[in-house]
Amino acid sequence: MDILKGGKTIDSGMESSLEFAQRIMKMVNSATLTVALSLGVETGLFKVMGGLQEPSTSSQIAQMAGLKERYVREWLGAMVVGRIVDVNPIENTYYVPPDRLPFLVDGPMNVVAFSRLIPMLCEAYDNVADCFRRDGPAGVSYTKYGKFHQFMDHMSNMLHNTTLIPDVVPSIAGLMPLLEAGSECLDVGCGRGRAVLLLAQRFPRSAFCGIDISDEAINFARNEAKRLSLTNCQFMVQDAASLPESWMEHFDLITCFDALHDMPKPRVVLSGVHRALAPGGIFTMLELNVHSHPSKNIGNPRAIDGYVISLMHCMPVSLECEDGAGLGTMWGREMACKMLEEVGFADVNVTPSKDKFNLIYVSQKKSE
Length: 368
Ligand SMILES: C[S@@+](CC[C@H](N)C(=O)[O-])C[C@H]1O[C@@H](n2cnc3c(N)ncnc32)[C@H](O)[C@@H]1O
Prior knowledge:
A hairpin with a 5-residue loop joins strand 10 and strand 11 (358-364). The protein folds into 2 domains: 2-102, Arc Repressor Mutant, subunit A, CATH 1.10.10; 125-364, 3-Layer(aba) Sandwich (Rossmann fold), CATH 3.40.50. It has 13 helices and 11 strands. It is 44% helix and 16% strand. Helix 7 (148-171) packs parallel to helix 9. It has a 7-stranded mixed sheet with strand order 7-6-5-8-9-11-10. It is an alpha/beta fold. The structure holds S-adenosylmethionine. Residues 152, 156, 189-191, 194, 211-214, 217, 239-241, 257-259, 262-263 line the site of S-adenosylmethionine.
């Protein structure tokens, strides 16, 4: 396929027409299989498959999962031809080879959870299609994605559980002693509050506040804090673009995980964040590890799902609000650094996360 770069055409790979058509069919096959993968997560079938002591029939698997055999059998058919599950055609028994299991069941190597993204995004498929029309709506409301917060919570739970405390916090100079000693921290666009809950448990001397525009997400976070008997964190429904005046120069640490690009007024939010930081305070945000121009993202494994997630969710939820910026999750490091600098953050440090999927932006507000 040919693409343009700097006025010149560059060739991103030689491919015959037949190969191109086969590639498209392969994509469609993978996409349809992904829907069945998601159902395996949703119904708990992967969990059951992971716990099997021996290859089992569809009736036995359905029995263990508490599901209807006919549906389980059809799902197993998809899993077999998709080469996720193996079958013994004589015994009619099914099993997952042990080397595949860690990627299908709960744990740090689980990748199948990503499949839930497809049905979540497609909840608003018709709405997004309408937005393309010139006379169509500007964007899509969060309420159209009924399972968004549930999905996001699942993903950020996995991400933060494995990386926030062991990797991200120690990687930011001066942050560990700050949190150990006791400091005031704010998480902007906290969703269901996973990052705040983890930080509050690990650093009992510090006080954490999570804000989000969603009542549903904040209520969930509050209940979790109660369940964990945490007294050093609170959650508030609050638009990040209009932080209270009493918060100015107040926080030692402000975080924003995978959230700024969804916001209708990201520049106003960053400006408010800068003002809400105490002199010497630290701001850190996590965004996808991508560039701002598609030509620089070819071959980046996060770029394909990144653009589609952006198109189907991040961009439309931002554009839905009046004058929404619609940055999208693919806004990339060049744009992000420029905006951070424009609102007053100097010396922005950008490092890839351990898995290289995200970038961690860190900047310290100057002490006057
Ligand atoms: C992609 S989610 C990330 C949530 C969370 N940080 C995480 O990592 O799980 C983006 C979050 O930003 C929130 N959000 C969007 N616009 C907002 C605004 N103006 N003020 C506060 N939160 C907002 C959304 O409700 C959503 O929970």
